Amino acid sequence: MVTSAIRTDPRVADVRVSSTTLTVMLRDGREISTPLDWFPKLKAADAGDRAIWEPAAAGHGIHWPRIDEDLSIEGLLQGSRAPQARN
Fold this sequence. Notes:
single chain; alpha+beta; 3-stranded antiparallel beta sheet
């Protein structure tokens, strides 16, 4: 019996941000989709600023330079939300 190992590549390939959802496509074909409410800084930014992103940490993170926001792929895979601001 021949089996082949499944190869995962959890680096970012593309990012889409709608008014309600953050969707991250990984190089291995997986998609991570989370409510935009989980990331208040992204939600507060305008669509133009959310559209400008770049891979960070060799593709294991995402950086939005116009709003100085960073998210890790590991955190997204774990379902981690951004820390909430305290009043």
